[in-house]
Amino acid sequence: MTWKRKSIGLALGGGGVRGLAHIPVLELLDEHDLKPAVIVGTSIGAIIGALYASGRSGSAIRHLIEEHTIHPSDGLKGVLDKTGGILKWVTSLLPELHRGGLLNVDRLLGTLLNGISESTFIDLEIPLSVVATDYWNSSQVVFDRGPVMPAVRASMAVPGVFTPVVVDNMVLVDGGVVNNLPYDLLSGRADVVIAVDVSGEREPGKHRIPSSIDAILGALDIMAASALSRKLELSKPDILLQPRIGDIDILDFSKSREVLENSTGVIEELRKKLDSLGMLDQSTAYMKK
After folding, report:
1. How many Cα atoms occupy the beta-carbon half-sphere of 189 within 13 Å?
2. Distance CA 123, CA 53 (A)
3. To bridge 26 with a disulfide, which of 58, 158, 193, 225 should be the other Cys (CB 3.0-4.6 Å)?
4. What pLDDT digit, counting tens, does each position of 139-150 carry?
């Protein structure tokens, strides 16, 4: 008779700054030594997934983000201490008004993923798959081999905001166009599938006319949410987490702390669900095989 611990497959969805809600999920898994067997990610989920798969802890990723954001509670010393990191962050978001995008994705990822910029998928500590969209073939492209950075760059290339990425003669844009929460890619690869949907919530009743960029990003949000709703009717992950983040613009990183704080409720939900599966109690965290 042999026994093994239940394996976890983790799907991290796209949603810009709202994707920072992935971080408390990772911290809870770290707290209970529940290392995922495989991770799949789209857009910001691909970024967080790549950082975590490379060996960074959830708390280390939180620290990386906090290094690059200012909050009212920081005080003067805190602001001064962060100045270098913030300047890099601001520089990475300087606009480029050519090649189909407004923002420079290379500088942004260079800031966030500096430690794994030369890594390949085989170098990662946890197997990772990253979703992008082939613009001209209207199809999903899944990366799980080769260099990590081009795959992540493609996965987060929001149309009209970030420049499309060319890989192997494919013109690639944000994976959220075709699969914003790719838990379906985990079928048969883990005992328990956890999917984190950070698409946020719309606020009916508003009448403000959005800017051009807000309209593009909002429309992508609506399409992604509609596609996910249809997919959930066909199959569901074992655990679906949907943090109540609110209607936060996907590029508004000044709201990073708000996103993290609003994730508390869903973390307790995850803790209860893992406990119900016998994964938090070491005496019952194993199943018969």
Report:
1. 21
2. 9
3. 58
4. 999 999 999 999
Contacts for 198 with CB less than 8 Å, ≥ 6 apart: 13, 14, 15, 18, 19, 21, 22, 44, 45, 243, 245
The token pair at 225 is 């949410």
pLDDT 10s digits, 265-283:
889 999 999 999 989 864 3
Neighbours of 234 (CB within 10 A): 7
- Which pair of tokens denotes residue 96? 């480029």
Torsions phi, psi for 17 (to 5 deg): -60, -25
DSSP 16-81: GGGGGGHHHHHHHHHHTT---SEEEEETHHHHHHHHHHTT--HHHHHHHHHTT---GGGHHHHHHH
Q: Please tell me whether residue 139 adopts helix, strand or coil conformation.
A: strand
Active site residues: 43, 174
pLDDT > 70 in the chain, percent: 78
44 neighbors 14 (Cβ within 8 angstroms): yes
